[in-house]
Amino acid sequence: MSDRLKGKVAIITGGVAGIGLGIAECYVREGAKVVMTANHNVDGGHAAVAKFGDDVSLFVQQDVASEADWKKVIDATIEKFGKLDILVNNAGVGGMGAAIEDLDLAEWQSVIDVNLTANFLGEKAAINAMKKTNDAKGSIINVSSVAGLVGLPMAPAYSASKGGSRLLTHATALNLAQRGIDIRVNSVHPGWIDTAIIPDVAREQIIKTIPVGHLGKPKDIGEVCVYLGSDESEFANGAEFTVDGGQRA
User: Fold this and answer.
1) Is 117 in contact with 95 (CB distance < 8 Å)?
2) What phi and psi, each to the nearest 5 degrees, are found at residue 122?
3) Of 36, 54, 96, 242, which is the most exposed, with the fewest CB atoms less than 10 Å away?
4) What is the distance of C-alpha 119 from the center of its chain?
5) What keywords appear on the UniProt entry (predicted)?
6) CATH number belonging to the domain at 9-243, selected among 1.20.1440.230, 3.90.550.10, 3.40.50.720, 3.90.180.10
7) Catalytic site residues?
């Protein structure tokens, strides 16, 4: 397949490694121009642009929890590509695995900032940009988690942040639709995906919990995000797309 996203411009946060890079690869294949961001993995950002070509891609270093950095990313996107069609709020952190009574407030706040507050800031910035540059049309995709559907016992901050992202998606989708604004908002809920976040010592144990018998690939999330970014999904709004190999079945 090709050209499903032809002519579209997308911002993908955390877009230079793991799931984010998988999404970017699918988007470029389908004809989109992509702006990828990361806070720490600057080398990965430059490598991704070298791979895709600077005619269709751009890297901007970004702290997703900073409103000023969101302005910087939006400005760079419009300066290079002229508009914004799609935002993929993908950047996230797992935090420390701990019982809630042992969780430090600063650690809790850092997870909430990156996984939830950043989604709010991204939605706000993207909606304003789509209003100004794209006739108030577009698609926002919040990459949540299966932990946004069911709690992980040793990840209270992560579960709360991803559950918050899920309901932020619902609320924003309804708010825009009820005002007649043609910007759709949906969430994607990955299960266990084969990225560097999974410790080698836990891989086999994790795989045993997955009904299909293997880890997902970043591309598996990318393909769902292609659909949600494309005009094919024009009636999908405020919905949840679970991609977990059957764990939640």
Assistant:
1) no
2) -65, -45
3) 54
4) 9
5) Oxidoreductase
6) 3.40.50.720
7) 158
From residue 165, give the alpha-carbon distance in Å to each of 36, 90, 160, 162, 181. 20, 11, 9, 5, 20
Residues in the chain: 249
Label the pairing between strands 9-13 and 86-89.
Answer: parallel
Q: What is the residue whose two structure tokens read 């600077």?
A: 54
Q: How far apart are CA 123 and CA 45, in angstroms?
A: 22
For the stretch 197-219, pLDDT in tens is: 888 888 999 999 999 999 999 99
**127 Cβ neighbours under 8 A, 6+ residues apart:** 138, 140, 176, 181, 183
Measured from the Cβ of residue 72, the count of other Cβ atoms closer than 10 Å reads 16
